[in-house]
Every structure is written in structure tokens, then in C-alpha cells.
Design brief:
CATH class of the largest domain: Alpha Beta
Structural class: alpha/beta
Helix content: 25-40%
Radius of gyration: 24 Å
Strand content: 15-25%
Number of strands: 21
CATH topology of the largest domain: FAD/NAD(P)-binding domain
CATH superfamily of the largest domain: FAD/NAD(P)-binding domain
CATH architecture of the largest domain: 3-Layer(bba) Sandwich
Number of domains: 3
Distance between the termini: 59 Å
Length: 458
């Protein structure tokens, strides 16, 4: 008789948990996975996927406007928000079914319910206890809001996906990727959008030129950025709301979206009770193998607060499965992970920012180009693309590639391979560009920027 019910028990059926469980099952491990809400997790059901669908939907507004510059006669247009959301929900239902089928096809037992650790080898779900040789925690993260008066009147990124109608006046509090993405979506859908940012501009942690370029383009679209501002309260005002700032201002609106951060989903599942160490933020402490302080308990994804991106969670989880069940020890490499922000215009970034590189390297070279995309010449749209290379002056190695503009995520994905492989600026220069394309600018930049390296802010 087997010592345990399962070889692997995964808590959390988001992208990371599903990927690792499937991979382990494909290698013959007996696997179970528990999910308290719906299989698919934040990315598929409450984050990346529905948000990207709304980005696509909102971009049609710009496309209709641009069409006139190319000789198209477009009549009156309007969006049916209820129909859009219904179509989005049907797609999420389809994906939820696909994820469940993928797990079952790999032999993984899906258990519906909230799981709680009883001890290092025992998990309880719906009053029933299951034992496992190894436990994988993949519970992700959750939106958090500050405890200020009236905070219950606001929405999070979970709530905004299910609104009944498009707000005429929307205030977004926060300057991260969720905030700027929803600012673009709802501005294009017709809302008056004000974004309140605690720092001096959006997207703290990204390259400074990239941040400033995006902020400038958002302003052109009519998105009002209120920087160096903090919200002290939210109050009801007539049929709408009012946001009160630390300067004593009252800004009227219909809805308020709080996008000021996320926290690891680590509470209430018995982690500390069995000896798993959490840091001050509540993130699970893990080593380079994603192993916690309890040897047979692993953790991956946002609950570990390393790099909170879906593909990273997937890679971490698959590395655990390869190591434990395929005799193929793999440690997830967290260096030079590319990322994208589906703002409008979009952002793509890989490698070091100028500010980070200037701290590590004695001398860096900076190449920057700004131009009007070819599509905008006939449409007349006043939107510019920014591309940037950060280069180690001594070795000529390209340390970072950054872009604001149409198709930035698609272009940066390809360049991420070059950065990961240690490509040099000379090799970029020797690469023939595809003409006419925006991407060719990355291999035709010749003039180094003369100003000194920028320093990080806020």
C-alpha cells in the first residue's frame, strides 16, 4: 500500500498550479489539485486574458478614427458594453473547461474547495483529508486596498470586469500596470479618466524614459494624471462619488478603481502552523528550487512575490515537476525576464533599465529613438513610438531593450532571446532590418545619447 494518497498535491489551480500539476501527471506522478474558486486562476479568469480582450475591444475606437485618414467612411459607432462582457464571460467559461480537461487528461484529480494544510503531508478540503508526499502551493495573489474612509465604495481589478455599464467619469488610484491598462481601456470606451498617482509618474520600477513616454502619450489621449497625490477618503456625492485628496480637493466621479497593489494569497491555509516561513509581506520564502522551509512543501508564482508574471509562475512550477518527477533538475532563471504592459500605446521591456544598469556597470551607452509610426502619417494621430537600448560600454553587451508603441510586446519578445543570449550592440548593428517596420529601428540606432545616465525616482 502506498504511504500517501498522492505523490503531489497542489493548492491553487491558476496558471502555475495547473502547469506544474499537468507536467507531474505526464511523468506518471499521482496528482491532485484543489481550487477554491474556478480552475484557471487570476490570469485566465480575472486578469491577463479578460483584460486583454477588453484592450482589443477598446482599440476599435481608435481604429474607427484612423480609418478616415485612409479613405474609409465610417458611420456612427457605439459599444454595447453588456454584449461585450457577455462575450468575454463565454470565452472565460470555455477556457475554464479547457483547463479542467487538460488536468483530467494528464490524470490529475481536480478537487473543488478551499484547501488547508493540517501538517506537512496532509491537506484538508471540504472536511476530507488527503495525504501527499509533496505539496505545491500556487495560490497566487489578491488585490489590496488601503484602509481609508469609504474604501468599500471602490472597486478592484476583479470587480471592474463585471460592471453593468461604462462609467461616464472614472477615477483610477494607482500608477502600476493594472492602473494604466484600465485607464487606456476606459478612455477609449468613452469614459473621462483621471489617474491618481502617489509618485511623480506612472510605472515605478520601469525605465525612466519608458515611463515618461507613456505618461506623455496618455495625456495626449485626455487621461488626466494627478501625480504626487494621495487619496484620504472616498465619499458619496449625489448619485456618484467624490475622491478627497491630501490637498483637500474633492474630485467628483461615478466609479473609483483602486489598483494600488496586490498581496500574496497566503493567509488562512495553515502555512505558518506547519512551519512554512513567510516574509513581512506575507510571501512564502523559498530557495532557488522553489522549496519552502518545510522540505517537502514547494511554492511558486505570486504567492512567493519574486517576479509576479504568469509565464514566470508557469516556468517555476514546471521546473519543480521536472526536478521531482523527471530526473531533470531545473532552477528557474529569473534574470532577463521580458514583460509587457498592455497600455495604449503598449510597453515591452527586457533586461536592465538605464537607472539599474548605471548602478551595476561603470560605464553604459544609451541609444534612444523617437518617431511617428508609419500608420499615423495618413491617420494623423499624434502618437509617437519610443525605443531604447541600454548597453555596457566595455563589452558592448545589450543590457536592456525598452519600447513604447504599437506591437511593443510582440517586438520585445523576439529581442528577449537576443538579450538572454548576451548579444552585443555590434551584433544588433550587423542584423538586417525588416523594412518598412518599426522593429527595424532596434537594429539601426547609431547615435549614443550624450546626457549622463538617469537616476531612479520615487
Amino acid at each position: 500500500m502506498a504511504k500517501y494518497d498522492f505523490d503531489l498535491f497542489t493548492i491553487g489551480a491558476g496558471s502555475g498550479g495547473v502547469a506544474g500539476s499537468r507536467r507531474a501527471g505526464s511523468y506518471g506522478a499521482k496528482v491532485a489539485i484543489a481550487e477554491a474558486v474556478r480552475v484557471g486562476g487570476t490570469c485566465v479568469l480575472r486578469g491577463c486574458v479578460p483584460k486583454k480582450l477588453l484592450v482589443y475591444a477598446s482599440e476599435f475606437a481608435r481604429a474607427f478614427e484612423d480609418a478616415a485618414g485612409y479613405g474609409w467612411i465610417v458611420g456612427e459607432t457605439k459599444v454595447d458594453w453588456a454584449d461585450m462582457i457577455a462575450r468575454k464571460d463565454r470565452e472565460l467559461d470555455r477556457l475554464n473547461g479547457i483547463y479542467i480537461n487538460m488536468l483530467r487528461s494528464a490524470g490529475v484529480q481536480v478537487i473543488d474547495g478551499r484547501a488547508r494544510l493540517v501538517d506537512a503531508h496532509t491537506v484538508e478540503v471540504n472536511g476530507k483529508r488527503h495525504t501527499a508526499e509533496t505539496i505545491l502551493i500556487a495560490t497566487g495573489g489578491r488585490p489590496i486596498r488601503p484602509q481609508i474612509p469609504g474604501i468599500d465604495l471602490t472597486m478592484t481589478s476583479d470587480d471592474i470586469l463585471d460592471m453593468k455599464e461604462i462609467p461616464e467619469r472614472l477615477i483610477i488610484v494607482g500608477g502600476g500596470y493594472i492602473a494604466v491598462e484600465f485607464a487606456g481601456i476606459f478612455r477609449n470606451l468613452g469614459s473621462t479618466v483621471t489617474e491618481i498617482v502617489r509618485g511623480d509618474t506612472v510605472l515605478r520600477g520601469f525605465d525612466r524614459d519608458l515611463r515618461e513616454s507613456l505618461a506623455g502619450e496618455m495625456a495626449k489621449q485626455g487621461i488626466v494624471l494627478r501625480t504626487r497625490t494621495q487619496v484620504t477618503a472616498i465619499e458619496k456625492e449625489g448619485k456618484g462619488l467624490a475622491v478627497v485628496t491630501d490637498a483637500g480637493e474633492r474630485i467628483a466621479c461615478d466609479r473609483v478603481l483602486y489598483a494600488t497593489g496586490r498581496a500574496p494569497n497566503s493567509s488562512g491555509i495553515g502555512l505558518e502552523e506547519i512551519g512554512v516561513t513567510l516574509n513581512k509581506k506575507g510571501a512564502i520564502a523559498v530557495d532557488e528550487w522553489s522549496k519552502t522551509t518545510v522540505p517537502n512543501v514547494y511554492a511558486v508564482g505570486d504567492v512567493t512575490d519574486r517576479i509576479n508574471l504568469t509565464p514566470v509562475a508557469i516556468a517555476e512550477s514546471r521546473a519543480v515537476a521536472e526536478t521531482l518527477y523527471n530526473n531533470n533538475p531545473i532552477r528557474m532563471d529569473h534574470e532577463d525576464v521580458p514583460s509587457a504592459v498592455f497600455s495604449q500605446p503598449a510597453i515591452g521591456s527586457v533586461g536592465l533599465s538605464e537607472e539599474a544598469a548605471s548602478v551595476i556597470y561603470k560605464e553604459i551607452d544609451i541609444y534612444v529613438t523617437r518617431f511617428r509610426p508609419m500608420k499615423n502619417t495618413l491617420s494623423g494621430r499624434d502618437e509617437r513610438t519610443m525605443m531604447k537600448l541600454v548597453v555596457d560600454a566595455r563589452s558592448e553587451r545589450v543590457l536592456g531593450c525598452h519600447m513604447v508603441g504599437p506591437d511593443a510586446p510582440e517586438i520585445i519578445q523576439g529581442l528577449a532571446i537576443a538579450v538572454k543570449c548576451g548579444a552585443t550592440k555590434r551584433q544588433f548593428d550587423q542584423t538586417v532590418g525588416i523594412h518598412p517596420s518599426a522593429a527595424e529601428e532596434f537594429v539601426t540606432m547609431r547615435e549614443k545619447r550624450k546626457e549622463p545616465a538617469k537616476q531612479a525616482a520615487d
